[in-house]
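Late entry, evening session. Most of the bench is empty. Finally got around to the prediction I had been postponing all week. Sequence below, unchanged from the version circulated by S.P.
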Amino acid sequence: MIYQISNLVRSAGLRKILDISDLVLEKGRITGILGPNGAGKTTLLETLAFLQAPTSGRILFDHEPVPWSSSRALRRLRRKVVLVQQHPILFTTTVFKNIEYPLAVRNIPAATRRNLVEELLDTVDMKPFRSSEAHRLSGGETQRIAIAQALACHPEVILLDEPTANVDREHEGQIETLIETINRSKGITVLFASHNLDQSNRLADRTVFLYEGRATRAAYENVFRAEVTLEGKAAILWESGKRIELNLPGQPPPNSHYIAIDPHSLQILHRKPDASSHSSFQGSLVELRLEKGRVSALVDVGLPLTVWMDERAFQKSDYHIGDAVSVTLEGTGIEWL
């Protein structure tokens, strides 16, 4: 592991921006941090970059506790972890000098700096822009130069905050390829924040979902409004006026009005569900997508449910778009938010 988080809270006044009880992030992997706007993604990255101390809780970095009270120790850690912001700010000078800057402040000899900058320009595919004015670059080009600056620091971890949020489709593909390159060829741990599930499915070895500052097991496309019935045994989920009843494990925590359903906990079957069951639903298979070693199936059961299946298991199955299917839910796959 590279990070181990325990009971992490980051507050602003009475509001908890982060409230993560337990989270382990693996070394040498690409991890996507997904969630809607306001979920706490940027705050989490800034905390993992040692730029913001948590209000309470504990973080281990590479098996050692983060010494938040020691400025000198934090400076050493910040040499190992680099955060690339969503809107990078470059100096009003050339691309070359922007990438050279972190090397110069570390007193790297000039000849060595030149060689390293040329290598980094090649890595981010920006050699033709070496003499261009950095502040005149497009959003995608700016993002690639910011990543080159980060690489110049020889970090163990690169944190990227919405790296393709402000770029066009062409540059999005280039940046995604670059993320894979720096992880696979350089062995750098990469964590990136995004609201794009498809992007995380393409890039990430693992995806962590944040919702209102909390890490949840389920993808946020399977998050629905919920309420407990008068009997206290079922919840009503609805989207666009549609609703179904579902058995839930226990009462919701105070002020919880949403549940998340883990796509791994859902199973598609060809047989019809038991009419009295509150954990099986009849529906129609409306979409199938291959996503990095798994198949994502979208089933309309009165509201859309995303189901994740192992690719090999799917290949042995006989599911087709338009099939009438049932979806069965394991009770352990439900989480109040």
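Two things to note before I forget:
The first strand starts at residue 3 and ends at 12.
Residues 169-184 form the longest helix (16 residues).
Will write this up properly tomorrow.
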